[in-house]
Amino acid sequence: MAEHYKPVRYKAWELTLEERFQEYHEPLSEREAIAEANRCLYCFDAPCMAACPTHIDIPTFIKKIATGNVRGSARKILEANLLGASCARVCPVEVLCEGSCVLRADHKPISIGRLQRYATDYACQHKIKYFERGKPNGFKVAVVGAGPAGLSCAGELAKLGYEVVCFEKKPLAGGLDTYGIVVFREPVEVSLSEVKMVEELGVKIKTGVAVGKDVKFEDLLCDYDAVFVAVGLGKVPDLGVAGEELAGVLDGLEFIEETKIGKLADIKFGNRVCVIGAGNTAIDCATIARRLGAQRVTIIYRRSEAEMPAYHFEYQFAMAEGVSFMFLTQPVEIIGKHGKVEGLKCVRMDLEDPDQSGRRIPVPVLNSDFVQPCDMVIKAIGQKKYSEIVFKLAEFGVREINGYIAVDDDTKRTANPKIFAGGDCIRSKGEASTVMAVQDGKLAAAAIHKQLAADPACTHKRTPVTTQPKK
Ligand SMILES: Cc1cc2nc3c(=O)[nH]c(=O)nc-3n(C[C@H](O)[C@H](O)[C@H](O)COP(=O)(O)OP(=O)(O)OC[C@H]3O[C@@H](n4cnc5c(N)ncnc54)[C@H](O)[C@@H]3O)c2cc1C
Ligand code: SF4
Fold it and tell me: Which among 129, 149, 351, 471 could disulfide-bond with 441, CB atoms 3.0 to 4.6 Å apart, if both were Cys?
């Protein structure tokens, strides 16, 4: 099992509710951090650095820890990734930097994530301000959505002297770092401290403002020189089975959100919980339910263990927390009594040959239905795309791929040269992660800068908006 998720601390009978939702890993002490940093070989052409989507200079930041320059170490991290404190906690390091560390084969890879956390926590605790707002250059950029992609783009642009206004529909900024990533991996305060850092660079974050509803895209295109769209994805989609309206059927993201910003003692949970889906959201919901005190938590997935989208270390983590898995099982109805969930009717599945995407197609086994007793069903089968935003942007010439916003890979520019996009809303294929969203924001900021201030011949400045007629 990956060391990152060794089940060392969770013993429900020993811990209070609050303790069970404390950050999972203890921070490294100074002695531990220096000892770990001294194991690093400071490789030339370091593979760990190449594996980091934001290309943090990992050997240099580790060397600085080894020589006692923690302040300089954090600067190195934040220069490449403004959200380095979040990424230190949430990055799937096992498949990125630590997975590529040359020491992985023979010994133990360097604990890069924990060292990064050590340095960025130091910077936060000592309230070190590394960056200043750049000299105003007269350009204005609107950022739609204050999640990792939006914050990264906004912060980088502010450093270059742009006037940046970020519109966020939720009451708090930070996106899924604030609302969606399970609290024992990332406490809300870490995300909010990064929001504060971006605000201190001069970025104005207007929370409680939904673009498309409270503010029009047309107005942003008129009033700003460029617009960066980083709206992420929406709610968990419906299962499309009978019984979804019953009390005790929950949206997985709302369930996680309660543990992030609500009072733990007030959260209602079932004793026998079925979680539907097998991605990282499902794993988070299942482990949260266990830590709240649910006796039996079962993840129900229609394909097999080999196809499950959750990272392997997350799967092992969930098993270590006492979560059960029911593979090749498809829910077909939620059964209720007096308006409340009482069971989940399922059928067994078989896998046929792969479809075009390469995944084997699940098909029901005849007469295999059965009822799994439960008093709570948590839906965790992914997130809906914001089709209304994609549809609206099409009026300005922005193209889409499978409901995601289509962008140029290097610049994150859409087919409309004034509109850029990044983060989960462009992730039409492959995995999505915080660090990828941060890198999108960085790339978009660089491309916006190249297009505006760095290019005096630019033709995409504040011009009246033209829309294409609706079809
Ligand atoms: C449960 C869960 C667990 C995860 N765990 C991990 C993990 O451990 N590690 C990892 O690397 N990644 C994880 N991810 C993925 C990661 O959180 C996302 O890839 C990342 O947050 C994407 O950033 P973003 O800025 O594109 O979107 P988001 O973080 O979703 O932010 C988008 C923001 O836009 C706002 N918005 C939406 N519409 C509008 C509008 N019309 N007007 C104004 N604002 C709007 C939203 O409110 C939100 O704040 C997880 C995701 C989920 C769902
Ligand atoms: S690959 Fe491992 S040993 Fe080499 S620089 Fe990166 S962390 Fe250090």
Answer: 149
